[in-house]
Known about the structure:
329 residues; mainly alpha; disordered N terminus; disordered C terminus
Amino acid sequence: MSEASQAASGSEMFDKREARRAVAAAGVGNALEFYDFVTFTFFAIQIGRTFFPSSSDYATLMASFATFGAGFLARPVGAWYLGRLSDRTGRKPVLMLSMVLMGLGTSMLVFTPGYATIGIAAPVLAIVARLVQGFALGGEVGAASSYMIEASAQHRRGWVISWQQASQQISGACGAAVGLMISLTMSAQDLQTFGWRIALGAGLVIVPFALVIRKSIPETHGDAARPVLSPPADASYIRTCVIGCILIASGTISTYAFNYQASYVQSKLNFPPSVALAGQVSGYVIGLIFSLGGGALSDRFGRKPFIVGKPIALRCDDHANTELATGLS
Length: 329
């Protein structure tokens, strides 16, 4: 083997090792943060009754979802602030900070007493907790995605970055699975009283391990081997950013519409929580398979076929979910 081939081989092995570490570090933390964020939707009914008791079940559920929506108000702020911070200080500090903030927000939500115990302070603290979670998650997505891309070889970026989406699918499946096990082993009263707190709090167990993993990773931003390039401020760049935002928005809307079904089939179709959560588990498992498959195939066939195909697939998925819900009702 020539010296050039050996150098190329060594560089490739370095890229593979670096990519694995990037997936482990960014993926584990990303999964945890999405676990805490989306598990809220699975137990929106129980959380609403805890913090927003009312004679109207509809008003209670809407108050619960409004609290969930507070997290989305903070997400663009977190994305902007922590994104800029990661460009100045590096990806690693932001990945550590977002993990700590998500753990803080989740702890507040899990350990805050209900309205019956501390009155109006309960919903106020719940909203603050959601704002902290949203801020953390907003910064997490950009920093984790950037880290994965910067730590991967050019010809494997589709596969590596697909783990960002795959980690979300894994976290959603785990959250639904934990909720399913709890709903099958607890009475409705216990699920209402403390079952949902156990489901949310389970994610906190991973926080110290995720912090240890992230502390051990190398910084990728500003590495001399991977120079940071300033994007051109021209029409083509702006057009790409706008299209990218639209594509991300379409996927996000579909994802949370799917998450809402866990509450919908309980509140409107009167299905038990176990049935609702079993459907969530199956949906996330399918999403995991297609996330990784799409990433791997994009490395081989290019990004554009999958970018074009995604909105079509999402529209078919939304239509199928609508038809299913209509049929069940």
